[in-house]
Amino acid sequence: MYLVEIFLPQRDNEGQELCPDLFSYVREELLERFGGMTAFTRVPVEELWNTPQAGRSHDALVIYEVMVQQLDRPWWESYIADLERCFAQEEMVIRVSKIDVI
Predict the structure, then answer these.
(1) What is the pTM of this model?
(2) Looking at the record's lineage, which domain of life comes first (predicted)?
(3) Could you list the residue range(s) of the whole structural domain that residue 79 is in?
């Protein structure tokens, strides 16, 4: 089994809050495709990184996750590209971990 975590930014590249409908759309799409999902939305996750051009940068994120029996990598690669367009991001992260469920 795999745990798939989708890191969604709360703000665009100009610092403006993203439309809540984007998050609803992703949530509904995951529910429809996988039958369930978990959303970590109460306390945004803070992501920090250093860039040569701008120094330290950060994002406030929410994390959506699903568990899947099989990993359809081509579908996820296409999905992340769609999310990057919808959220107007140069790059977004989907993290996959192989897990055992007890």
Answers:
(1) 0.82
(2) Bacteria
(3) 2-98
